[in-house]
Amino acid sequence: MGAATATRASWAIPLLLGLTYGIYTAFMARGTSPLTARNVWLGVLCGVILTVVAYLVGKLGKGLPAGPHAAAFAAPFGIAMGFLYSLGGGSILTAVLLAMTLAASMFVASYYVFYSHSD
What is the pTM of this model? Predict the structure, then answer.
């Protein structure tokens, strides 16, 4: 992979993730009611936040050891999925448990990948 491709992917992947997450957040917040400006702004805000976090994790995580690098991927993933679940009307306890379970799963998978590919 060339330098230009790596640079393009370093911002394109977080942008695609943020865009997808923002759209999904707006429609989850909407429920069965019509789409409002509040839903759109929530989606835009969540999408921008996820884009920035994903970009920073991708840029700053490369210098970290496998454990902290995996935790840097797991925490935003768990938080984002728990928030989406809570928008669907689930209880806060269930959302927290789901977020922790998904974050732990992401940590294990990320740790395996980063540890097995470390030099």
Answer: 0.86
